[in-house]
Structure formats: structure tokens, C-alpha cells
Amino acid sequence: MKRSIRLIADDYGLAPGVSDAILDLIARGRLTGTSCMTCFEEWQQAAVRIKPLAGRAAIGLHLTLTDQSALTADSSLVSAGRLPPLGQFAAPFKGIKAGDVHAELDAQLGRFADTLGRMPDFIDGHQHVHFLPAVRDWLKTRFASAQKPILRGAPVVPLEVGVIAVKTAVIAALARGFDRTMQAAGFPILRPLTGIYDWKRPEDFAPTLRAAVSTMPEDGVFMCHPGHVDAVLEARDPMQKVREVEYAFLASDEFGAVLAQNGAVVRDSVS
């Protein structure tokens, strides 16, 4: 019996080229699904394109609280229509009111539901913001009396030392207690999170994915960021050409061979 693994692409809706690449990989059966950023003006068009995939791929919400445009008016969170850099969320909370965070998240979730006619299959976060205390509180409140979505859980810090171990440890510190407390609140958790590598070294993506295919447990999830570079992406995000590298490997016959060699298939649902 083949092992089924979950490969989730972040950032659907970030730019047309990113959305194009993700839709292509879903059609090829190389992704379980994708999490959507709903805060951009192109979201309506992106939603029309992905809506027919409901039931054939997992469609989630990629909560966005940093470095991009906001849906809500200026507040302790939003300045001149922009969300703050991630560092502004570091303790202490630096004057950002939880209510303003919750309002932005309500707007992003509302836009997802309004355009797709459904709630997300799962929820995760751009730059892992779903691990933040204010977001944990929002999730518990917002879904207190509703069906709870699946959440992306924390990574396991590798035993070896190095840049990736440090990067993983930072994410794990942000996520401390998340899996346990959110599961106690009734949320299903996808864990462990894999797919962490130094995206400034695109050549590390393929070995990272190969290792995950052979070692990732069935309850785990591998995050990735495939895409095609276009002018919109260049204006919005520093993670650019590495997205082309990720796309090329995920679409390749070589990756198909990696799956076959490990007796693995890409699951088409997060549940």
C-alpha cells in the first residue's frame, strides 16, 4: 500500500504567476492543495480560477498580517493601507491591538467565504503568523460554535546544528504550545511541518523534498512556494526566482520518480 503525503503550496493569489504555477501543479497531481491570500485586488479573479477545484484539491486560507496590503482601515495594525513587518509582532506587542488583528483576519476570512462560497479546508499563516497569540485567540473565538478547520502545526527542530536548525528553532519557538492548546480546543492539526530550508539557496529545495518524501509521516505536511516570476511578484515579495526552481522540480519527471521510488502518492485532501 502506498504512503500518501501532503504537499501544500503557500501564497495562491499573491501574484498571477504564482497562481498560474500552483494551478498547473494541482492539475498534474503534484500538490495536495494551496492556501490562499485574499488581501489583494486580484483575489476575485484568482478565486474564479480555483473555485472549480473544490473537492478535488484542498483550498485553505493563508492568513496575512505582514508586509502586504490590508483589507481594513488604518489602525494600530495598519498604516497607510499596509500591514507591518513581522518584527513588529515580537514581544512586547508594540501597541498592536488584538481587536485590530481580529478585524483584519475577519475581513480576509470573509472575502474567502464570499468569493468561494465555503469555509476554508484548512488555515495556515504567511510567515507563520497563525502561531501568534492574537491569532490563536481569534481562531478559538471565530470558530467557537462552527466547524473547526484543520490547522498547520509546528515543526520539529532537527538534531543537527546549522542555519536550518536555527531557522526551524525560531519557528518552533513562535509555535510553542500551539499544537497542544489548539488541539485541546478542538482543532485538527497537521504535524509536523516540513519543507523548511534556506530559500536563498534554491539548490537545497530538491534535496529537502526528496528527504521529506522518504521520511515524512502521513500526518505531516510539506509546505512549498512554487510560482512563476512576473512584475506583480517582483513588486510584492522578495522570494522570487526560487519559486521557479520549486515549480520546475515539482513538475518534473524526476520528482515523479522520487515518489515512485518511495512508494508515495500526493494526497488530494488534507483530511
UniProtKB/TrEMBL annotation:
<dbReference type="Pfam" id="PF04794">
    <property type="entry name" value="YdjC"/>
</dbReference>
<keyword id="KW-0378">Hydrolase</keyword>
<dbReference type="InterPro" id="IPR011330">
    <property type="entry name" value="Glyco_hydro/deAcase_b/a-brl"/>
</dbReference>
<dbReference type="InterPro" id="IPR006879">
    <property type="entry name" value="YdjC-like"/>
</dbReference>
<keyword id="KW-0479">Metal-binding</keyword>
<keyword id="KW-0460">Magnesium</keyword>
<keyword id="KW-0119">Carbohydrate metabolism</keyword>
<protein>
    <submittedName>
        <fullName>ChbG/HpnK family deacetylase</fullName>
    </submittedName>
</protein>
